[in-house]
Specification:
The protein has helices spanning 2-5, 13-24, 31-36, 50-67, 72-92, 138-168. By secondary structure, the protein is an all-alpha fold. The chain has one domain (2-168).
Length: 169
């Protein structure tokens, strides 16, 4: 998301960090499950909604705006898009028997999901992080790394290639 949307001359570590944070923040809903002994108790709840993506973008805009007014709009947009991309990927990872995501909460409590067969399924039990780090999760992890990593590698290659050709001309 960051490589595709941020112009090379406008890139910053702050914006990159906030975009990355936004892309993983919806899964922080696992943490309350540590206390209940059920990691999935709150997973894919209201934090997996586009409303939270907008809320996160607004918080980023306000916080970054205090110190870097010029960067705040770009940081908010990219951080919100990073967050929304997680929600959309979880929506696309919906499978038979899974809960889906409450994409349009609070307008609707309905859970939405679409199984394109692209993403794998992660298995876990118990309340330990190590219950997710399992051998049978490796195929799903590798599939997601390939699907998400391929465009990233392409954008990095394209950028490197354009830099190389600019120098050799």
């Amino acid at each position: 998301m960051y490589l595709a949307a941020a112009r090379k001359q406008d890139r910053s570590r702050v914006v990159l960090g906030l975009t990355l944070l936004g892309s993983i923040l919806p899964d922080f809903d696992f943490f309350p499950g540590f206390f209940t002994g059920n990691l999935s108790a709150y997973h894919r709840g209201i934090s997996h909604s586009l409303t939270f993506a907008i809320f996160f973008a607004a918080v980023v805009f306000i916080l970054v705006g205090w110190t870097q007014k010029k960067v705040a709009p770009r940081a908010a947009i990219l951080a919100g898009l990073g967050y929304a991309s997680h929600v959309i990927l979880d929506f696309l990872g919906g499978k038979e028997g899974t809960r889906g995501v409450p994409m349009f909460w609070p307008l609707s409590d309905k859970l939405f999901g679409l199984n394109l067969g692209l993403l794998g399924s992660f298995y876990f039990q118990g309340s330990s992080v190590w219950s997710v780090v399992r051998r049978d999760n490796a195929p799903a992890l590798l599939r997601e790394l390939f699907i998400i990593g391929s465009p990233v590698l392409f954008l990095l290659w394209k950028e490197h290639r354009s830099k190389y050709f600019a120098v050799t001309r």
